[in-house]
Amino acid sequence: CETCSKEEAKYRCPRCMKYSCSLLCVKKHKLALSCNGVRDKTAFVSVNEFTDLNLLSDYRFLEDVGRTADAAARHCIVHSPATKRLLYCLRNKARGCNIELKTLPVGFTKRRENSTTFNSMENKFYWHLKLIFPHCHAEYTLKGVPDDKKLADILKPYIDPVESDPVVCQRLKIYTSSPQSDVRILMKIENRNRNSVRYNELDASRSLLDNLKGKVIIEYPTLFVVLKTLKSDMVVLGQDGSEPAENSDSESSSLSSVEEGEIRDS
Q1: What does the pLDDT read at residue 236?
Q2: Does domain 76-227 fall into CATH 3.60.21.10?
Q3: Would the pLDDT of 51 be above 70?
Q4: Is the Cα dihedral 211, 219, 147, 141 positive or negative?
Q5: What is the mean pLDDT of residues 132-152?
Q6: Each residue's pLDDT tens digit, 120-140
Q7: Among 93, 170, 219, 261, which residue's Cβ finds the most Cβ atoms within 10 Å?
């Protein structure tokens, strides 16, 4: 047994291949390794170790994926008039704010997790927002962010040395210890070819709505928070010397063939 090292092993975990002698040791190893005990059907298998059983497993996995996709496409919510009206309303309201909002088909992760709403009484968007801190390999998801909130206020709970949560502050220490003037907020430009990825730099002193105007958004905004003093492979439009900064998203090249197949408005 790889947990207690006392008894003869009787069980082997399908997930991590650890040997255990009893139910107690099985539970201990799952807790210690955060293992769910479920076999990983997508785990890498080298060609030398690939057997007929692996081939059969892959075939069944693809069949399961096909059935799941078909079931999702047939789900009543997909064709619900209420769902279509909601998406149409969101896109229409975004268009009125000079924002091109695109929605993905049901089944895509971003479509499932998107919680963006529009409050007609307040005439305001409450955005689902994702913040990514690449220098610390951390990301956070925010829900119900009002569109009139400044980006600087949105980032305060994460990178402000005084107002940030102690746990978050420790994880994002490289950000909290840097001057606020070094912080840059970038957002990927969607309508570009895959071999020409560029980012727009946003203004932290302006509201989320002001920063999103004139942009293309797929489901919800994803903001990358980087530091000027650290090297980053993210090229900001207009700062690479090859393109003018005034090229807006609407003037960018059309979607690649892959994206065209993925992005539909309903």
Answers
A1: 74
A2: no
A3: yes
A4: negative
A5: 90
A6: 888 899 999 999 998 888 889
A7: 219
